[in-house]
Description:
Blueprint: E1 9-15, H1 22-30, E2 36-43, H2 50-60, E3 64-68, H3 77-86, E4 91-96, H4 105-116, E5 120-129, E6 134-137, E7 148-149, E8 167-170, H5 171-176, H6 189-199, E9 204-216, H7 232-252, H8 254-274, H9 280-294, H10 299-304, H11 307-318, H12 325-334, E10 346-347, E11 353-354, E12 378-382, E13 387-393, H13 398-402, E14 404-413, E15 420-421, E16 426-427, E17 429-430, E18 436-442, H14 445-454, E19 461-471, E20 476-479, E21 482-483, E22 491-495, E23 499-507, E24 513-519, H15 520-539
Parallel strand pairs: 1-2, 1-4, 2-3, 5-9, 12-21
Antiparallel strand pairs: 4-8, 5-6, 5-8, 7-9, 10-11, 12-13, 13-18, 14-15, 14-16, 14-19, 17-18, 19-20, 19-24, 22-23, 23-24
Helix pairs in contact: 6-7, 7-8, 7-9, 8-11
Amino acid sequence: MTSTHTPTVAVVVIAYNDAALVGQAVSSALAQGPVVAEVIAVNDASSDGTAEVLDELAARHPRVKVVHRTENSGGCGTPRNDGIAAATAPYVMFLDSDDVLPRGAVEALVSAAGEHRAPVTVGSCVRRELPESRDVPWVPGLYTPGEVIERPADRPELVRDTLCVNKLYERAFLDMYGIRFPDGRFIYEDFVFTARVLAARPRIAVMGDLVYVWHVRRNAAQVSISLDRKDVGNWSARVEAHRVASRLMKASSPELGRACQVKFLEYDLRMYLRELGEDPDYQAAWWTLTRDYVAGFSEADIEAAGAHARWIVRVLRATEVPPAPADLLRLTRFAADPPRLLPPYATGPSGTPVWSDTLPVELDRLDELETADLPVTIDAEPNGCAGLRIQVHDLYGRLAAAGPRTVQLRFQPRGDLGELLVAEPVELTPAADGRRWTAELPFRLTTLARLGRGEGRRGLQAWDVKLNVECADGSSVLTSPRPLSRLLHRRVLPSSRYGVLLAQPYRTTGGSLALRLAPGAAGVMSLARHRFHRARIVRG
């Protein structure tokens, strides 16, 4: 077992025009203790004060070595490769200039790598949404702490973890197989690097410790490459990265190759589709690019994907240009998480469920879906000042067969996995046609604000609204309601506890109902800052 007191790891930190944050990243690497032999900081020809910050750190800390590039590479791959080339320690890991390593991360990784003689060791990562500091686990449930994966092909779902930063790599392993990042302006370079790693079939040790904090600054003046999805070039780059990764994994293992294709259909495609927006030029370019790409997927790969992804692919293939606005809206809402298939519901000549009258694409194997997986639509509108009136839509008789009985209102903190239940189940009332159910759901916003305060949410609170429908056959479906327009109005409520409570229901990118609450003066100021940042981004 490797002694964690021995200098063992090179942490490669890459930076471009990030003078304000790179010092924090380097300091988090140095704080790992003597197990970090060297911090290789690569300055990708920054034009701000990044070079000076790194040189000052190197002057104070002998373990810091700075590589100054004379020309900007245009991406993250080349500076990371420069860092690997400069490293002398037996292990290497990567850190971006605006992220941090939590204390003890490197020591835990090295310990697991030595114990299991694994050239690759992985730990958990969180996406920390700033400025709220909400932690969202990365690929939860993918790894089992203490697990040793002898071959990636034994766990093809590993393709879902495309990050390179939550892992420790044996440098000799990377050199033996010539594993490096794509050079130059290659966006999503970690997709290809990870594919090369998996294709080399290493033993992978898994540990449960948190080893990486990925900072997500959506309100930053310059967002990260992965968040900069305002033009079709970003999607084109992601498609190209997937194309290369898929080819590598197919050559290594049929199981990995198929899993890579399915991951694209179930995750990447749906994520970009639900963010399609309203620009017709973008929609047309996105549609052509995506349709051409999925045309090359084998039918077996498409069949291996879940029903929701399969239906999206078949709608894409059914028309060369984006469909009518109503169908396009239905498609973006169907791509959301959770998926929602908006009414009306059409059938083909033989009574088979189809996408719509204008696009009669068969919704194959709908009858095989579990109730929990049905893309049910629930409409929500205000019910006075103290609740919601909802309408649950049937889906080709599938929900009716399960027998909806009650509905429960739930609120989930945005970005968190935990839930707070704030309402008792309410009986559903069936409509005369047997295709809809209604209910009136009372709740008090002041109660929700108080519960949020009790969970430590002192400023602006952001909540996802959920509805759980329980059925007579014991099944259930949890989804987010679709807010009707008259629900989306800000309310100012008097509160004996807070003085004033501001409530702003809103529609998320995926078309779901969410809620911002600003209790008291601190909450109001948080809401004002939030609106200011959003307005600044839109103007920029």
